Amino acid sequence: MQMMIKELQDTTEFLQARGFENPEIGIILGTGLGKLIDEIEVISEVSYNHIPGFPTATVEFHRGKLIFGKLDDKKVVVMQGRFHIYEGYSLWDVTFPVRVMKRLGIKKLLISNAAGSLNPKFKKGEIMLIDDHINLQGGSPLAFRGVEQLGTRFTDMSAPYDQQSGRIMQEIAKENGFPLHKGVYVAVVGPQLETRAEYRFLRTIGADAVGMSTVPEVIVANHLKIPIAAVSVLTDEGNPDDLKPVDIQDIIETAGKAEPQMITLFRELIKRIELKPAE
């Protein structure tokens, strides 16, 4: 446990020495959703493979940079590319950046991902506000000896997503004239996509969208008492009665087309949210 704590401390100090000073908001950008960086006044950036303790992104369409800067007069730290269990990483690895961002000072966490729609009312290219989730990844990022030294072991998950931020994003979508669904995200391991039977099962248990990320980070953020807002860009439709092969390039292109709406949601939310002063 002491080695874990030292690793967190070393990584935090490394980033602070490179100008990552007191970020207020952390942002994790999902597949095909990296252009929010263009909106940021960048102060400092570091490739993951240069950061001690950080895994290296192995997915070719995840860039692998941690970026610090200003967005609408708020200081943000942005993960351009995230880590997944399907890359062979442990849940500690996948969630390590969230723990580091907390130590750097973030007070809110915004997450985006690309996901498959399970709800027949939610169409490809639309966005879903994540209101709740189901963890089917076979483990917990809190299931290790000594976790109580980093936060409460039995973390409450009755309301894992910040309701106030969700309401603000719904207002933003309405003002800008695009639909923002609200639903349940289910996280699976991947990297293979779902079979027809699996899509039927996931629908039956109450999921509206399926993906391979986000839930571990959300669990750890709740463990650290960081309020979270998360959205899924729906890049394909998992209709088991009319299931067609999915092309990963098509997923990335669909995410790119919906990305301006996601950027609008995040930018406007960052403008409107009030942050408590540091304790």
UniProtKB/TrEMBL annotation:
Which BP terms from GO are recorded? nucleoside metabolic process
Q: Which domain of life is it from?
A: Bacteria
Kindly give the Gene3D superfamilies that the UniProt entry links to this protein: Nucleoside phosphorylase domain
Q: Where is the Nucleoside phosphorylase domain?
A: 24-271
The pathway noted for it is: Purine metabolism; purine nucleoside salvage
Keywords (alphabetical) are: Glycosyltransferase, Transferase
Which GO molecular function annotation, any one, does this entry have? purine-nucleoside phosphorylase activity
Q: Name one Pfam family in it.
A: PNP_UDP_1
**One term under GO cellular component:** cytoplasm
Return the EC number: 2.4.2.1
Keyword Ribonucleoprotein found: no
UniProt record similarity statement = Belongs to the PNP/MTAP phosphorylase family.
User: What role is this protein assigned?
Assistant: The purine nucleoside phosphorylases catalyze the phosphorolytic breakdown of the N-glycosidic bond in the beta-(deoxy)ribonucleoside molecules, with the formation of the corresponding free purine bases and pentose-1-phosphate.
Q: How does it assemble?
A: Homotrimer.
What protein name does the entry list? Purine nucleoside phosphorylase
Q: Which organism is it from?
A: Salinimicrobium sediminis
